[in-house]
Amino acid sequence: MTQSASEPTTQLFDPLSHLPNGALENPYPLLAGTRNGAPIVWSPKGNQWLVVRYEEANSILRNNSFGKRLDKWKHPKFFMRQAARIFRRGGSSSILLQDPPDHTRVRGLVNSAFTPRVVRGLEDHITEISNKLIGNMMNKTRFDLIEDFAFPLPVTVIAGLLGVPVEDQDRFKHWSRKITLGLAVSGNPLRLVHSFFAIEGLRKYLSKTIEGKREHPGADLISSLLAVQSADHQHLSQEELLANAILILIAGHETTTNLIANGVMALINHPEQKQMIMEDPNLFGLAVEEILRFDPAVQIVRRLANEAVDIGGAHIRPNDGITILIGACNRDPLVFRDPDVFDIKRENNNRHLTFGAGIHFCLGAELARTEARIALKQLFERMPNITMNEARVKYKGPFGLRGPEQLMIDSRH
Ligand code: HEM
Q1: Residues 27, 15: contact at Cβ < 8 Å?
Q2: Distance between CA atoms of 255 and 217, rounded to whole angstroms?
Q3: Which of 77, 237, 241, 396 is most buried, by CB atoms within 10 Å?
Q4: Rounded to the nearest 5°, which phi and psi values hold at 69?
Q5: In a domain, 93, yes or no
Q6: Cα-atom radius of gyration of the chain, to the nearest Å?
Q7: For residue 185, what pLDDT is reported?
Q8: How far is the CA of 364 from the centre of ligand 1 (A)?
Q9: Residues of the chain below pLDDT 70
Q10: Residues in contact with ligand 1 (CB, 6 Å cut-off)
Q11: What is the CATH number of the domain that holds 55?
Q12: Number of domains in the chain
């Protein structure tokens, strides 16, 4: 059956148009509802297609008929159009928003800093930072896991890799929060203003850092990209260098903070699974994959159709916008048995789409996995009896980036 753009749909949950009460805290019942209909449904309110089944999402992500010229797509709400424009100011020249051949050229340049071999070489460093942070938490009976652990660990690692001073981490946190909150659907103009100024602030800060590195290069990613640039200006423009520094700084900590926090919650809430890992610490790697599948730190990825495509019963037209709902796809019962069950030993938990797929597959996936594995292992080995202090956790938003605002933890020694 071909579904046309004008046909009404029933099980519609379009988180980029409207967030019902409680959807930020627990979107999974709503996402399950979306799967009762077609794999790809049209949202008239959002002027876009929503992809809610795994196979269709996976093939769209791997199909170059779908690209990143998202400026061609218009959200019906003025507010959301402005938010998208402001966001593009930060990153339209980054690999996240580029199509081939530019994407291929620039991704090739940044890739070398994130290979599995490089990440393996960082394990001792990550362990050392993690140990120190846990040592500080052990002096407390109650603490905010985000502030004391889940944020400082990845931000320290990514600042070091990129070559920006980690002492400025509070500024990064501030900018990152303001920029990402600008993407929330609740139409608050003040948020847009904050988002705009945060992007300008971060651009200025990183431009200065880049100029400083030109004079005094170090052993870091910005310096090595500058070396490429000075050898051949055609190979990397100044705007591409800046946009990718912004992307890597934000993507490198915001998402991993959420992964660590979502992981701590999942393990505390599933004591029998936690017990199993404690008895066999080799399972921490598998646990991270199941956390990524079960409660994805990134909930949406977006594309624009470059041409007409028929897929999953939907007739997609050129320039149609597409949003993939990762949280729905990762619990697709056609791929994952008993998908709502948190089971670290399920045979295919690493097939999740939480890092995307295809040419834009997350550049930092290996780094995020390694940080989360080390963080969770050390935390539960050294503080096995931690509990959550609050029954209800407040989530930060926007919908696309899932993680708690704070996570108060009680510790009994
Ligand atoms: C839990 C942690 C993380 C999650 C869930 C995550 C998720 C994602 C997803 C879904 C994409 C694909 C976007 C798309 O297809 O449109 C992506 C791309 C990307 N991620 Fe991550 N990410 C994480 C951690 C990191 C880290 C630590 C870095 C640090 C470098 C990073 C850097 C990037 C970059 C640069 C891209 C763009 C790649 C491209 O477009 O070619 N991410 N990430």
Answers
A1: yes
A2: 28
A3: 241
A4: -75, 60
A5: yes
A6: 21
A7: 72
A8: 6
A9: 1-11, 186-187, 233, 413
A10: 95-96, 107, 114, 247-248, 251-252, 255-256, 259, 297-298, 301, 354-356, 360, 362-364, 367-368
A11: 1.10.630.10
A12: 1
Closest atom of ligand 1 relative to the 96 alpha carbon:
40
Supply the angle between the helices 169-181 and 238-269 in degrees, to the nearest 10.
90
- Looking at residue 2, what is its pLDDT? 38
Query: What distance in angstroms lies between residue 354's CA and the mean position of ligand 1's atoms?
Result: 9
Q: Coil, strand, or helix at residue 298? A: strand
Nearest CA to ligand 1 atom 39: 360
Distance, in Å, from the CA atom of 181 to the CA atom of 195, rounded to the nearest integer, reads 7
| 314 falls within a domain | yes
Question: Structure pTM?
Answer: 0.95
Look at residue 306 and give its three-state secondary structure: coil
pLDDT of residue 4: 43
According to the model, what pLDDT value does residue 331 have? 97
Q: How far apart are CA 263 and CA 284, in angstroms?
A: 10
Cα of 363 vs centre of ligand 1, distance in Å, is 5
- List % helix, strand, coil for the chain (3-state, nearest 5): 55, 10, 35
Tell whether 386 is covered by a domain. yes
Domain carrying residue 380: 28-410
Residue 224 lies in a domain: yes
- 283-335 pLDDT tens trace: 999 999 999 999 999 999 999 999 999 999 999 999 999 999 999 999 999 99
H or E segment to which residue 162 belongs? helix 152-162
pLDDT tens-digit readout, 201-253: 999 999 999 999 999 999 999 999 999 888 776 789 999 999 999 999 999 99
